[in-house]
Description:
The structure holds 2 protein chains of 2 kinds.
Chain A: H1 2-12, H2 14-22, E1 25-26, H3 36-55, H4 65-74, H5 79-106, H6 115-137, H7 142-155, H8 162-170, H9 177-209, E2 222-223, H10 224-250, H11 275-280, H12 291-312, H13 318-345, H14 348-371, H15 377-382, H16 385-397, H17 419-426, H18 428-434, H19 440-447, H20 452-462, H21 491-497, H22 500-503, H23 518-525, H24 533-550, H25 560-573, H26 600-608, H27 634-644
Helix pairs in contact in A: 3-5, 3-10, 4-5, 5-6, 5-10, 6-7, 6-9, 6-12, 7-8, 12-13, 16-27, 17-20, 19-20, 21-24, 24-25, 26-27
Chain B: H1 2-35, H2 37-40, E1 50-55, E2 66-76, E3 79-94, E4 97-102, E5 113-115, E6 120-122, E7 129-130, E8 136-138, E9 147-148, E10 150-153, E11 157-161
Antiparallel strand pairs in B: 1-11, 2-3, 3-4, 4-9, 5-6, 6-7, 7-8, 10-11
Amino acid sequence: MKSLLDWIDHRTGVRQLTKSVLFENIPGGSRWRYVWGSTLTFTIFVQFVTGVFLWMGYSASSGDAWESVNYIQNEMTGGWLLRGIHHWTAQLMPLLLLLHLMQVVIDGAYKAPREVNYWFGVLLLVLVLALSLTGYLLPWDQKGFWATRVATNLMNLVPFVGPEIQKLVVGGTEYGHHTLTRFFALHAGVLPGLLVLLIVGHIYLFRRHGITPAEPIVKRDAYFWPDQVFKDTVACLAVLVAVLAVVISVHGAHLGSPAESSEPLSAARPDWYFLFLFQFLKLPFFAGEKEVWGAIYIPGMAVGLICLMPFIGRWKLGQVFNIGIIFVFLGGAGALTYLAKQEDVTSATYLRSVLVDTRDAQRVTALAKARGIETTALSLLKDDPKTQGARLFAQHCASCHRYDGHDGLAVKLLSDVTLGELENRTGMTSRFFSGDAVHPDWLARKSGTQDPWQTVHSILDAETDGKFDVIASIELQEKQSAPDLKGFATSQWIRDLLDPKKFISHRYFGGTAHKDGDMYKKFLKRKVEKYEAKELKMLDAIADALSAQAKLPSQKAADVKRIKEGTADLEDNIGCIDCHAFGEPDPDADGPDLTGYGSRQWIIDFVKNPKHENFYPENNDRMPAFGVKKILTDKEIGLIADWLRGDYFELPADGQGH
Amino acid sequence: MPELATERRGFIKFLCAFIGTLISVVPFGAGVWSYLNPLAKREDGAGDGFIKVTTLDAIPVDGKPAKFSIVADKVDAWNRFSNVSIGAVYLRLVDGVPKALHTVCPHLGCFVDYRPSDKDFFCPCHNSNFRLDGGIVDGVSPRDMDVLQIDIRNETEVWVKFQNFQPGHIDKVPVS
């Protein structure tokens, strides 16, 4: 073994190199406060290793980026761990950089002859921030997409050449393939290359000038090896343990829903260490054409001032001034960051947006897992009735109709959120850090108060356990004027419709002209109100029989005998067919055709044209002919019908798709 | 002949520097040339730039704005996509006449929300808010929301000239 090492050393001089690395003199001996540089080197090492392995699973194009990241996160063995380490280490790095910088300034370690090395350090800081900014876009989710639009639009403010710079960075005027390829080349090629060069220079200069000992020196000098190396490795271990703890607790890193330029994401925010700049731009001072000051000049001057510190430090009070400046920056940035977070966690718009994005992301991940991605993940979402039906309903139907009291976009955050978890989610600290909480509108509705956090506590005090739906739909102010379509054509929905009181309530036709129509006046009011138990039982059977016409996925196991009875009641005993067609066309019928009532085709035909002779040729009340007037396409009407019927892919409880 | 040798040395040093620069510049040059490609390419919209968005009947009669996707063909570098959404507009009826606003904030390009409770538009990024006609009420946006040209064809079809504008400036300059 020794002879082999001798042989290598003779040809490479590796022993001398190792010696010079390990036997660096440290004035005053090893100290814990010297570990920050090493932890930073370690995190950069972690990012290089995990980054290269992520690269092996990543595809930089607008049709593949989200899909490949989703595959890494949810399908590849250990992919979540790999991605989680990369993401969370990146979250930690700015903090370590800040500590490193503060220490250098406080100890005056930038003074002659170490100015150049100090500038190397400042450049490294800027490079790491640039790496973070470019990495944010790569998953091509809504958050990265919208936040990067803001970041690149800022480049547009650069005097004279702004639009050209933006075009070069984005790779054109539209965000797409070339935005990703360019960002990826920067993130995985150009910036890491520069980073390595600068780190080599940084460490070389650091060794050349030696460590700046912190006063007072109480111990004897010692070599770097082994005491300081030991302290450094322990600090790196602590960093790694902290990162792993977060990675394991959140199972990797968040991936939002796929980027989509026509769907807003109000919750687009930069990473936490850019939040102060984000908040800075909200200041009224930067309104109008003065924005370039907030976005470019002032941050540029701040970095310039930091670079000038070695010269300022030469003056009598310079060192004190520099330390003061660092704390002013820190205090200002801290306050702005706090304001940004505080504004978000109390904003209904923001919270709704987070919830909708979370729901879409979970949905598309489930669809991708169960069905595979034929073209893009976005098209899975676009063709999904559960997602699009609700959106279309909210846009086109919810001005008159309701779905379970809301506009169709209520978000069920988790099916089994218990009160304990709810409390965790809404606790001050977790709310502050996660930005994810219970929607204030929902809370207000629950207890009628306006202070949401008071409400959470009153709910928590009142109940012990239960399941919660979190409503993220916009608050609907006007009273509904047309029926609530939750459970449309189910047996229960039809049975309730046949109840005179319910029929004229706002849940059904109370807000329409039908409350004065024949159905109510001649049938429900005149007859049903006087029904005895036997006839009411018939209505139950009719509801079952009519509901069977819909062939809803939720009602597959129907009782054939009962349906037969109900059909007989419908045709003969109660006399529905006096006004409605059933089973065969009836030109004299003036109520809607009950043949195939609530089936996919029936709903589609109805939405296309409510005035069609099969529905309300005479007495349609305000409902537009969505198909005839080309307000909605056939595909869109189909999506709404499937959504109303609950006819879409649903992950069963056992986790296996059907 | 030491003098001549020095002169020759000087020339060789010059040649080293010259050749060295040349051979380093060529690969960078080729790279930068292709990197500048987006500057050379101009967006040339097909036809007059108007895109059919919806029909008059789809716009709420009560004067509330509604969001509509702009569906058109899109070229993304090496891909051509037909009928995909490339953005969105808010449409609103004013005395029966439709008006179109770009959904993107003229400040930094976030998606502006319609707030039914406040009957205004609100940018969730930097808190600018706008009247329903797009005029700025309060906030850091340098200009009003971008009004888009609208054309009614075949009596009921709503066509919009869909354009993006440079964010962050007082003047409304189309992106090209």
